[in-house]
Amino acid sequence: MASGWWILLGATFVALGLVLWCLAAGTADGRIGKNSYAGIRLPSTMHSEEAWVAGHQAARGGTQVGAAIMVITGGSVVVTARTDDLATLAVFVGTPLFCGAFLKAVRAANKAANKCR
To answer: 43, 112 in Cβ contact below 8 A?
Structure first.
């Protein structure tokens, strides 16, 4: 892959990570209420506004860890863009880590939201 594509991929990871960090904060403190576009939209979290906030408060830490890993992964891809093997390694190491953090956050959200029923 040409280095320009690696830079674009890395920059995308960084941007998405920053957006997810802010989204986690906004949904956890109630600034972003229950909606059809952003947040963890599970049947449990969509049940009520109380379940929405409780779920997102429980998921905030895990989501922000995942977002931080995504930013670090993206930065690593940008820094290593001229070396395909290193950029690939950054993606192959970072992606499962941030996906795991997000999965853990979703499970926490579901558990907390279900307690509101």
So the answer is: no
Instruction: Tell me if 15 sits within 8 A of 78, measured CB to CB.
Output: no
What is the spatial distance between Cα 116 and Cα 101, in angstroms, rounded to a whole number? 23
For 55, other C-beta atoms within 10 Å of its C-beta total 32
pTM: 0.90
DSSP string, 46-71: TS-HHHHHHHHHHHHHHHHHHHHHHH
**Is the pLDDT reported for residue 3 higher than 90?**
no
Question: In the predicted model, what is the mean pLDDT of residues 67-90?
Answer: 95
Distances (CA, A) of 62 to 7, 31, 33, 69: 26, 19, 19, 11
The tally of CA atoms less than 13 A away on the side-chain side of residue 93 is 13
Contact 82, 3 (CB under 8 A): yes
